[in-house]
Specification:
five-stranded parallel β-sheet, 2 domains, alpha/beta, Rossmann fold, 14 strands, 327 residues
Length: 327
């Protein structure tokens, strides 16, 4: 047996985006046929390529590999001779009993190797284009879905689907992924309906809260599940003051990464004034008289001698009106 044939199998599985785990022997106490440093590639269906010891250890390894592939987390295990095959946790090590009579103890490290998760982006808007370009730089495969889209227009996308029809998209894509709808006014409803048909784990919609509310009502009126519609996150993205398509894409990706890592995103929880108070600056001014802009007569003296300036966003700045009510 070639103890290094796992290298070729790893390259093949990686190229075909198939998950596997690399198992390394950390410590071997005789009698055991494996030695420290031995390695094997192990798949979820129990195929073992390489060498990590005989058949006594393999059931525990395969079981732990399946768990690691499901969770995406590495695991250290110890397999020691005992009359019982029960498993127990000792700190961060999972210990298995080995009922075989050969004896010996093995300590192994199981490292899952998973394909890059996919981010499905709907739309051919500037934000959608920026998302497909930025996603691979943070470890995500971008899949672009838009009516009439061409692969040559999205060079960074791992895949381009040139239709947003639900039947075609659901046949081509697995369910339960990460989805962003960034149509920005072009085929919003068809994209949202197809995105919901994918049964995504998370779904973000790049739109204002008001627009999202109107489209949610349309989706529910068309028969979509109200609970799934309510789960659409909009506006999408972390509140970083983004303005350009690239900045908006960056803000959205920050939320996607937070969801992928199991962390709550700030954009999904309202920020109270107590959490982020607006800075205020006070300027004391003496009272002054001003002429009326309508009658030309004298206006009453200013009632207050303190003017307060608060930092606001452009969207929050009120439109200045004259004292007669005009704009």
């Amino acid at each position: 047996m070639n103890r290094h044939d796992w290298i070729e199998h790893a390259a093949r599985l990686h190229a075909s985006e198939q998950p596997f785990a690399l198992v390394t022997v950390l410590r071997a106490q005789a009698p055991t046929s494996a030695k420290a440093g031995d390695k094997a590639l192990v798949t979820a269906d129990g195929q073992i390529h390489g060498w990590i010891g005989g058949g006594c250890a393999q059931p525990a390894v395969v079981k732990t590999v399946r768990q690691a592939l499901a969770s995406g987390q590495p695991q250290s295990i110890r397999i020691a001779p005992t009359d019982e095959t029960a498993e127990r946790t000792l700190g961060d090590v999972l210990e298995f009993g080995m009922a075989c009579h050969s004896g010996g103890t093995l300590e192994l490290f199981i490292d899952p190797v998973l394909p890059a998760p996919q981010l499905v982006v709907f739309g051919d808007s500037p934000v959608a284009r920026a998302l497909t370009g930025l996603a691979p730089r943070v470890g995500l495969q971008s899949v672009l879905v838009a009516e009439g889209a061409m692969a040559t227009d999205f060079p960074d996308a791992a895949r381009v689907i040139g239709t947003d029809q639900a039947d075609a998209v659901t046949a081509a894509m697995p369910a339960g992924g990460l989805v962003v709808v960034a149509t920005q006014g072009r085929r919003d409803l068809p994209a949202l309906r197809t995105a919901l048909a994918l049964q995504p784990r998370h779904l973000w919609f790049v739109a204002s809260e008001r627009k999202a509310g109107v489209l949610r009502e349309s989706l529910i009126g068309a028969g979509e599940d109200p609970a799934r519609v309510a789960a659409i996150v909009a506006p999408a993205g972390e509140p970083i003051g983004a303005q350009t398509p690239e900045e908006i894409a960056l803000a959205v990706l920050a939320t996607v990464i937070a969801a992928r890592r199991g962390r709550p995103a700030r954009s999904e929880a309202p920020v109270t004034p107590a959490e982020e108070p607006a800075p205020k600056f006070k300027l004391d001014l003496p009272p002054m008289e001003m002429g009326s802009c309508c009658s030309g007569g004298a206006a009453k003296p200013a009632a207050a001698t303190e003017t307060v300036f608060a930092t606001t966003s452009v969207a929050e700045t009120p439109t200045k009106k004259s004292c007669c009510g005009g704009n």
